[in-house]
Amino acid sequence: MTNRLSRKAEDYLEAIYGISQEKGYARIRDVSSELSIRPPSVVEMVKKLDGMGYVVHKKQEGVYLTPMGEEVGRVIKDRHETIKAFLVLIGVPGPVADKDACVMEHKLDPKTVEQIKNLVKFVEEGPDRPVWLDHFDAFCRTGEHVCESEKPLPRRRAAETSVE
């Protein structure tokens, strides 16, 4: 997302954003629980994020995202949800998809995430489940294309399908 933030810092901002959206505020113990990290470690990272201008930490009150921190948290959470939805769409079990999305959300180019989001939206908002998705499910189970008897369509090269 940004050159200044580590993956760990982005994970904290994502967690604080999610907790704040759900509860209206975030406390150290909430972040600790969400990330399965000990409270003293959370306090240390929150102090760093406060110093960088991403959060404001008020003892006894909680952790509040600055507009900059909120933007990063929102983007990372959206990336996570998009990637997880895609992984589930292609048959990855939910817990594995969630764990893998945590890794992938920090590495993919924004354009890649945008196209993944478009594909997920296309499939989810379509009137019917795409036949090719059923074919993919069958292929995953059997290792064979179920549509081999159908006349194949000419393949388009990747350069012909690139989206600018």
Summed up, the domain count is 2
Structural class: mainly alpha
Named at the architecture level, the CATH assignment of the largest domain is Orthogonal Bundle
Percent of residues in helices: 55-70%
**CATH third-tier fold name of the largest domain:** Diphtheria Toxin Repressor, domain 2
Uncertain residue segments: none
Please tell me how large the radius of gyration is. Answer: 20 Å
Characterize the quaternary organization of these chains: single chain
| CA(first)-CA(last) distance | 20 Å
Biggest sheet, strands in spatial order?
A: 1-2
Order of helices and strands: HHHEEHHHHH
**Overall body shape:** elongated
Overall number of strands? 2
Going by CATH, what is the homologous superfamily of the largest domain?
Iron dependent repressor, metal binding and dimerisation domain
Overall mean pLDDT stands at: 89
Strand content: under 5%
Task: Report the biggest beta sheet as strand number plus sense, adding barrel if it closes.
Answer: 2 strands, antiparallel
State the name of the first-level CATH class of the largest domain.
Mainly Alpha
Discrete helix count: 8
